What we know:
The protein is an alpha+beta fold and 272 residues long.
Amino acid sequence: xxxxxxxxxxxxxxxxxxxxxxxxxxxxxxxxxxxxxxxxxxxxxxxxxxxxxxxxxxxxxxxxxxxxxxxxxxxxxxxxxxxxxxxxxxxxxxxxxxxxxxxxxxxxxxxxxxxxxxxxxxxxxxxxxxxxxxxxxxxxxxxxxxxxxxxxxxxxxxxxxxxxxxxxxxxxxxxxxxxxxxxxxxxxxxxxxxxxxxxxxxxxxxxxxxxxxxxxxxxxxxxxxxxxxxxxxxxxxxxxxxxxxxxxxxxxxxxxxxxxxxxxxxxxxxxx
Length: 272
């Protein structure tokens, strides 16, 4: 029963996982545990709480059903997460391997210790500008200056130019300012993110970019290319490859938070 409950909670956090990944979290470090997890998943499927809609290589990809999500919510097993999907549509659309890689990234960053503090596919949008993008994973583990950490995973399927654009989108998001002030007063402008999204953060959250899906020497080349493509960006960006992250090797800093430079790049709105 405990293995089933743990598997439900894990899928509620990461949405998509294989038996290998669930065993890594649920069972003891010195035990493989995959046979226990397989039996648990089979039983959850019989109960209509979990299902598999595709594979990553030879390995079935598991996700919750709506009934499984409701069971978690009814049991108060996880913090409320409005509009969270089950992951089934992503797997059916062919994004299963990407989701599995995101789960590997979460586990490599110590996800076993604080799994319930993660959310995946978190939307960031500014209606006034039309900017909208989904962050692969967000970790609510506060630092001294920020309430969350942002994570993007590239599984080697997008062009270098598109990857760079996705990173620059974070600067555009961080640079947008909103005007505030009562009618008849001077008022002023303030960062959108600080007023409406990460209100407990002193600095814009650091973006972690993880590169996966290719041979390691190709990932190293991609890392250097990304560093060149985002040179001068005014948000904090750290990058690593998934193999290096799994080995516990350090991150590379390729962007530094610079509010003053962002303010020059994204002029203040005129007062009303």
